[in-house]
Amino acid sequence: MTDLQQALLDYLVTNMTDAADQEISSFRRMPEGWSRECFMFTLTWKEGGGEQSRDLILRKDPAGSLVYTDRMVEAGIIRALADTSIPVPAVWFLEVDGAALGSPFMIMERLPGTSSPAVLYAPENAEIRRSIGHDFIRHLATLHTTEIEGRDLSFLGPVPTTATAGVLSLEHWERTMAEQQLEPQPFLTQVARWLRRNMPEAPRVSVLHNDYRTGNFLFSGEHITGVVDWELARFGDPIEDLGWVFKDIWRLDGRICGFFEPDEFVAIYEECSGITVDREALRFWEVFAEFKHSVIGLTGTRTAVERKTDEINFSIAHLYLPPLFQEQASRIGI
Hints:
This protein is of the alpha+beta class. The protein folds into 2 domains: 3-109, Phosphorylase Kinase, domain 1; 117-331, Aminoglycoside 3'-phosphotransferase, Chain: A, domain 2, CATH 3.90.1200. It contains 10 helices and 9 strands. Residues 51-255 form the Aminoglycoside phosphotransferase domain. This is Aminoglycoside phosphotransferase (APT) family kinase protein. One of its GO terms (molecular function) is kinase activity.
């Protein structure tokens, strides 16, 4: 048993006060996750005269990341959405300091299914992608139309107005750029100015996932079984989420996330959500998505340069920047 496994078992024994004889098996690091270290394991224990078993996930803050986020946000949004039709895992434990395992962490139930884009895009799965695609859009529409009032979302901060939602999102990524850049970024500074000048008003204020795409949901058969990776969630313009979904990098043969042509995707989203998608606003948020992705690339580059992690993926984060810059330049007419 590794030191981490022993520390995890000690934590569970201490905090599962009604349980006895806890044991961990099948503990292994998951390949997924740039912003969190993810481990899967099976926990067995005795309680109420019987033996219990659950498949669980440990999501632990790494030394270095592509994005630095508050663990409270991820756990809070999952708990806040538990009574909706969006499939989210049950959160068992949340620790915001590193006393138990060396860094903040969350333990949640493991949902069935796979997140693998390779499986989703396999030729033999072409027929089921439409069904999965409808789930993908329906869950996003449900998120965007979930009422904020009366739901405990205080961890996301003050609720913006339709006029300020986009501006606050831009300011967040501008601050992140200022914190993470290793040198001045004159091109991205100009893109940020363009975004500020052309900022549309939101059709409404919604809860955003902020990284909604292939790889961040689980599926089995013809349906999505879980929506995951909520650490970037925030209030904002729902079309911002669509702009990220529409990025070319997630497309397959021109179809959005491999599911539908852009017009059909928008039509299904409008029918599910009742939100009218202004096409000019969508094009704006597509530019914004490239800007945001660039800032994430700057963060990954700094993480590698400062040797906060030995993960090889971070050493190539800077290679994403030139094509992202080119995409922004072509979209804003430079």
